[in-house]
Amino acid sequence: MVTQAFRQARFITSSAKLSQLPPDTGIEVAFAGRSNAGKSTALNTITDQRKLAHTSKTPGRTQLINLFAIAQDKHFVDLPGYGYAKVAITIKERWQKTLAKYLETRQCLRGMVLVMDIRHPLKEMDIMMLAWADAAGLPVHILLTKSDKLSKSQAMQTMLQVKKSVNVYPNTTVQCFSSLKREGIDTIHQVLLDWFDITEE
Ligand code: GDP
Fold first, then answer.
1. What sign does the CA torsion over 140, 84, 12, 186 have?
2. Distance from Cα 108 to the centre of ligand 1, integer Å
C-alpha cells in the first residue's frame, strides 16, 4: 500500500526560526505555499490524518515552522504560508532572506512541494520560491490544489499553462490535486517516496 509510509507521520516540533531546526542530517522535504493555498489540508490528505497539520482560518497569525517525522531521519518541513498582506515589509524581507538561505544551504533538503491554489497559480512569491530552488539545484513539485473548483478541462488547461511557464526551471514537475475529491494522491506519494528513498512492496 503506497500510503503506508506517510500514515506514520507524526508531529515533532514547531519552531519560530529555521536556525532551530534539527541537525542537517537525513532527508527533508519542505512544503511551501501562499497562505490559504491548501497546504495544511494537502499534508493531512497525504498522510491520511485528519489533524496532522492544523488548517487555519487566520492566515499569518503565528509564523511557525512545523516539523513532522515520516521515519527515522526523514522529515517534512511545513514552512509558514506567505503572501499575507498584513505582515510588515521588514518582517517579510527578513523571512525571505532566511528562506532563500535555507533553500540554498540545507544539505538534507531533497525537494520542495510548492502548493498553489489552482485558481491563483504562480503569484510573485511562488515565482521567487521557484527561482531560489532552481539556484539551489533543488527539485520542486508543484501541487495545484483545489482542482475540484474547476472543471476537468479547465484544470487540465491550467496545469498545461503552469507547466509551460515553469519550463525554464528544469527540475520542476506539476500536478493537479484535490483533497476534497481525493485526486492526485498517488502521484504526490510517488514523488515523495522517490525523494525520501523509500521503496514499498
Ligand atoms: P493553508 O493556509 O495553505 O494551510 O490552507 P488550508 O489547508 O487551511 O486550506 C485553506 C482553505 O481551502 C480551507 O477552507 C480548506 O477547506 C480549503 N481547501 C483545501 N484543500 C481543498 C480542496 O482540495 N478542495 C476544496 N474545495 N477546498 C480545499
1. negative
2. 28
Q: Name the residue among 177, 127, 172, 168 with its Cα closest to residue 148.
A: 177
In the predicted model, residues of the chain with pLDDT beneath 70 are: 1-3, 55-62, 85, 201
The residue to mutate among 49, 54, 55, having the most atoms of ligand 1 within 8 angstroms of its beta carbon, is: 55
- Span from the CA of 178 to the centroid of ligand 1 (angstroms): 9
pTM as predicted? 0.94
Long-range contacts of 193-198 (CB under 8 A, 24+ apart): 193/2, 193/5, 195/27, 195/29, 195/110, 195/111, 195/139, 196/5, 196/27, 196/29, 196/70, 196/71, 196/74, 196/110, 197/27, 198/5, 198/70, 198/71, 198/74
